[in-house]
Amino acid sequence: MASNTxxxxxxxxxxxxxxxxxxxxxxxxxxxxLLIQHQxxxxxxxxxxxxxxxxxxxxxxxxFEEETGIRAYRLIGTPSFSETYTVFKRSRTLRKTVTYFVAxxxxxxxxxxxxxxxxxxxxxxxxxxxxITFVQSKQLLIQVNDYFRTNLGNLLNI
Length: 158
Hints:
By secondary structure, the chain is α+β, with helices and mostly antiparallel strands. The chain has one domain: Nucleoside Triphosphate Pyrophosphohydrolase (Alpha-Beta Complex), CATH 3.90.79. Helices cover 26% and strands 38% of the residues. Strands 1, 2, 3, 4, 5, 6 and 7 form a seven-stranded mixed β-sheet that branches. A hairpin with a 4-residue loop joins strand 2 (32-38) and strand 3 (43-44). Helix 2 (125-131) runs antiparallel to helix 3. The protein is globular and about 45 Å long. The N and C termini lie far apart (46 Å).
């Protein structure tokens, strides 16, 4: 039986943001977020487990590149954002935490990994919020969007 405290499983991912052309546009919903539809049917962000010896950032970047084919992006290493939820595997209840990093993407072109991803969509904040399946991921998107909107000028000029 899984413990009630601590984390039983960890994964790492990227919240990709396609910034509005022209740079520091203050318009609401000018930027778009990349959501993927996992094979299980739910919508969220690219993520996966670390391989032996990988740091969280290395793992997040590798999974992002493998799942989306996107190689041209600028990673914002801090802060990170996380979600924790319960999963059921082989008659066990596990607590899973996924840590995400923000990445600014230069192009909307996606070559997704068909064995892991059903579909993808670049969506403005409100549409992304409606599309995401799980409440924890919706809350994470709100946090990322707030951070991005607050730090827009600094992030786009790094």
